[in-house]
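Hi all, long-time lurker, first post. I run a small reading group and we've been trying to get comfortable going from sequence to structure in the token notation. Rather than ask abstract questions, I figured I'd post a concrete chain and ask someone more experienced to write out its structure so we can walk through it together at our next meeting. Sequence below, copied exactly:
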Amino acid sequence: MKRYLMVGVTFAIALLVLAAIVLSNQIVSAATATEVGSAIGGVNAVEYIGRIDQDGSSFVSYGYLTHLSSLTDTLLFSGTLPFVNESNAHFTFYTTATLTARNVITGAFNSITSSIFLIDAVGTTVYYYNATPGAAFADPDSFKAGVPVMTATVRSQNILNVQAPSRGIGTNFSEFTQTGVNPFMLNGQPYQIGRVGLLERLFSTGEGTNIDPLTPKSITLVAGNAVVTGVPGQQGFLPLVMRNSP
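-- Answer (accepted) --
Happy to help. Here is the structure in token form:
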């Protein structure tokens, strides 16, 4: 009986030691992770390409990252540049948002083909790391199949310039506030994307197609970038234009 008891105690101690080692490694990784995707000074911190699906007042945006500042672009893909796409992208994103405002101005002759749509929406976005890439635009959920490494809240303003029936050019500006970060290992090194409280301004442009004007439903293909506008604990560094005294 004592023998079985000793075996059980030894096994329990071994589990505790293993758990302590794992926890220690996680802490070390978080403490020593190199921060990427947060360059300041007006350079692009992040670049991306993707798609926005609208269904009534709901929006889903998904795609992959093509550039992260301070990280070599070749590490973002399992394929060989420049011949890469979503199927071999290590970093993907998935955003959900809800319509908050919609404004329309119509041009000459009250024509829908000379209209400007202003759409506001708020939501959340998540970046994922995929050790084994395999996303596909035919399967939107595949863009959130990896490990979450960054979360943020987003407020977006989309300006749609209608160029033809059911077709227009969209320009999007978003206010991005990072709410979470999860360090990850890449090529044997610990990294993290940004930091909690990081502020960014996102820009994207692309072509939108209205596939159901009644709901409405639309698909917009976009590409864009993000520039850091604020860093936690630091004074705003964007240049200010000040009027000279008379």
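A couple of things your group might point at:
Helices lie at 2-32.
The longest helix spans residues 2-32.
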